[in-house]
Amino acid sequence: MRKTKKKEKENTLNSPISGRVVNIKTKIGDEVKKGDVLLVIEAMKMEYIIRAPYNGIVKKINFKEKDLIEIGQNTLELSKK
After folding, report:
1. Is 78 domain-assigned?
2. Is residue 5 situated within a structural domain?
3. How many of the other CB atoms lie within 10 Å of CB of 38?
4. Mean pLDDT (10-residue bins), the chain, 81 residues
5. Whole-structure pTM over 0.85, yes or no?
């Protein structure tokens, strides 16, 4: 029997680090371009910037400012344009 991994949705952006969401630079429905800053996570007194990996539209934001986030958690959903 083969084990199959769950395929991660292409339109989800996961957190690369555990920390606190300190700034959300976008809102649902916003059109973003590749490289635009979407949100900022603070960990160990350093800020980690989450950027759009491609042009798209923000469909869902899963956190509010000041929320704690764990590594691998889905931060937001972005549909390709």
Report:
1. no
2. no
3. 21
4. 48 94 97 97 96 96 96 95 79
5. no
